[in-house]
Amino acid sequence: MLCLGLSGGLDKVYENRFQIANTFMHDGAAVLVRDGHVIAAVEEERLNRIKHSNKLPISSVQYCLSAAGVQLSEIDHVAYYATEAYCNAMLENMLASEPNASIPLDAKFLVQQLLAQEFGSELDPSRISFVSHHQAHAVSAFAMSGFEQSLIFAIDGSGDFQSGLVAVGSGAEISQLATFPENNSLGLFYLEVIRYLGYGLFDEYKVMGLAPYGDPVPYRELFEQFYELSANGEYRVHLDRIGPTLLRTIQVRQKGMPFTQQHKDVSASLQEALERIVFHILRHHREATGMTRLCLAGGVAHNCSMNGKLLYSGLFEDIFVQPASHDAGCALGAALIVSGELGRPAPRARLQEVYWGPDLASDHAVEEELKAWAGHLEFERTEEVADRAAEWMAGGAVIGWVQGRSEFGPRALGNRSILADPRPATNKDRINAMVKKREGYRPFAPSVLEEDAREFFDLPGSACEFPFMNFVVRVRDSKRGLLGAITHVDGTARLQTVSRKASPAYWDVINAFKQRTGIPILLNTSFNNNAEPIVDSVADSIATFLTTGLDGLVVGPFLVKKRATTLEDWTALAVSLPPYVSLYKVRAHTALDRQETVCEIRTDHSSRDGVRISHDLFDLLTRIEGEAVLADLLDTITLDQAQREALTGELRRLWEQRRVRMRPSQAARVHQN
Question: Carbamoyltransferase C-terminal domain: from which residue to which, for each copy (predicted)?
Fold first, then answer.
């Protein structure tokens, strides 16, 4: 029995018809389940390279079908991550704002139509279901927890006109205890506050990392005006009070401005308020139900600091957090719901790993990809890849590490990671500067051999398995000075324990580092720059390696270094525009307050996302039909050497921002072979 779960939007990658729904339709993914077992899962952003993709997860579905060796017509059931009534309401709202849009008002027919267009087979409507959004969150956690019984708490921003639920799971059944309306959303509560800290949607985790630098006391009473706690675990948030109050009280931070102590204190107060509300809800339901175990899902469940506080509180004997708690995880929940309804529920077993994405393919295919970049890369194959990588890192190198199948969810768990020595505090600043180009306060996570975790981290009770980076835990006092690159300002770290059974290649490289240094830990952060999702393919990893300051790259059994390059090496590459990019000429004010025509490249149809480019580069890019070798493009216009170098440099900067694609031309690939 094959069941396919979907999350995300209904636009194709080059369309923007559903902008009105994009606050809900994001984090697209596809998950394929056979008889209750996950056999393939990937987020669309990993494949279409659009962060938090709000597009129809076409590539994700293609991958899942390929992994199973089936056609769409062989899928027994497809499930979408929201109710049909909610989807129809969104379609009606869109039509009201755009009366001329040619969109059917029947969500099931629309999904059926879109899948038929992409995959050439029309599913019977009876094989397409819409499931409750928060029920999908709940099932995605409980079904993977291994618990026979537990309390379930699903919390996020919004979905199906709600923002969360509390339920009890028992066997294959989930009984709902309470739901939370959209206007009482803890996700929207957090989001509304961070707007005044210069952040927005998808930035919540950044504020979680900022909070330990602040003191909640100065704004505690202020924040108590924003929520009320009442009997029976009930609460109320006053979203309408937040903006007017903060505007009167703090200096609003604009994006890019420095953080003041005031901003840090507000972050701390916000984090404290969230934790206080969550504990209030859970204490009541823990006492009312007698449940000693807890499952968490929904976007707010990615608040690892909150999860850590719950862990240490002793309120529950065991806590399971769904590793893809955000909306991509609803694709998993949707697939499991319909699989259960068809008599194939998920087995009651604790989730151990989520390496469900695309594999690297054969070593030969990887080698051919590397050969095509001969002008930019040098590489060697080794049977001692873990030892050699550990030697690099022990010597101070920061490397990209790509092995096996990619992880499902927002965390790099050792198959698509940037790795480094966890000891020098300077490594944190170095990686932030040379790769991530992000705020310097943000911490990096440690990956530790499971058997050594307690030596370095103060873990509550008998817990020793933390495979998904879902909890912030305490670094032991005696180890904080030693682990400078991964210990946060408050003495904590977002921990991943690594099992030899679940992740043998990653365990090997950490163990090899231990043999050289005595430290069974590596700094682990996601393999991407600030402009892109986590890499998935070999091509993605090469692009990120060449556009960041990483010292080395390990892909499968290959050790890769950068070559010194010439202008000719760069102009030999082929250039193309991603399907989500558009070129514009617009009238704008210049620095001298004059109006003139400027050129922009945008990653959507919004003028807010435009990056200005030179007129020469604009003209060059408009000449591309599909893909073109850069040298051939440059030859179409009269340029001296300095101009060729300037345009190539400008193009490379756009590549760093992932607004253009650069890769070896087909001719170069044939020549290398």
Answer: 390-562
> How far from each other are the two terminal CA atoms of the chain, in whole angstroms?
43
Confidence of residue 605 (pLDDT cuts 50, 70, 90): low
At residue 23, the pLDDT reads: 54
Q: Angle at CA 598, nearest 5°, toward 596 and 604? A: 140
Between 345 and 93, the higher pLDDT residue: 345
Would you say residue 99 has pLDDT above 90? no
pLDDT over 80 at 335, yes or no: yes
> Which of 525, 565, 526 lies closest to 546 in space, CA to CA?
565
Q: Quick one: DSSP state of residue 259? A: P
Measured distance CA(475)–CA(483) in Å, rounded? 9
Helices (H), 314-373: 328-341, 363-372
d(CA 323, CA 350): 12
CB within 8 Å of 402: residues ≥ 6 apart: 360, 415, 416, 527, 535, 538, 541, 553, 554, 555, 556
DSSP state of 150: E
What CA–CA distance (Å, rounded) separates 453 from 451? Answer: 6
Residue 671 reports pLDDT greater than 90: no
Per-residue pLDDT for 19 more than 80?
A: no
CA distance 402 to 416: 5
Q: Retrieve residue 262's tokens.
A: 């005031």
- Tell me the three state secondary structure of residue 554: strand
CA-closest candidate to residue 548, choices 398, 404, 428: 398
pLDDT at 248 over 90: yes
Distance CA 49, CA 97 (A): 29
Q: How far apart are CA 136 and CA 297, in angstroms?
A: 9
Residue 562: Cβ within 10 Å count: 16
Question: What is the predicted pLDDT for the residue at 91?
Answer: 86
Is pLDDT at 101 greater than 90 in this prediction? no
* pLDDT above 60 for 453: yes
Six-digit token string for 172:
């294959």
H or E element that contains 586: strand 582-589
Whether 215 shows a pLDDT value over 80: the answer reads yes
CA-angle at 412, arms to 411 and 417, nearest 5°: 155
Quote the CA–CA distance of 423 and 523 in Å, as a whole number: 8
Cα–Cα distance, 282 to 278 (Å, whole number): 6
Query: What CA–CA distance (Å, rounded) separates 29 from 58?
Result: 9
Orientation angle between helical segments 186-194 and 239-249, nearest 10 degrees: 20
Residue 591 clears pLDDT 80, i.e. is over it = no
* Residues in the chain, overall count: 673
Residues 653-666 have a mean pLDDT of 95
Tell me which amino acid residue 567 is: L
Question: What's the rounded mean pLDDT across residues 361-380?
Answer: 97
Spatial neighbors of 120 by CB under 8 A, at least 6 apart, are 72
Which run of H or E residues covers position 416?
A: strand 416-420
pLDDT value at 582 more than 70? yes
Between the CA of residue 448 and those of 472, 499, 634, what are the distances in Å?
A: 14, 9, 50
Residues of the chain above pLDDT 90, percent: 86
pLDDT range class, residue 603, cuts 50, 70, 90: confident
Distance CA 499, CA 202 (A): 30
Contact between 8 and 55 (Cβ < 8 Å): yes
86 Cα distance to chain centroid: 25
DSSP state of 434: I
User: If DSSP codes are grouped into helix, strand and coil, which group holds residue 518?
Assistant: coil
**406 is written with which tokens?**
């990619």
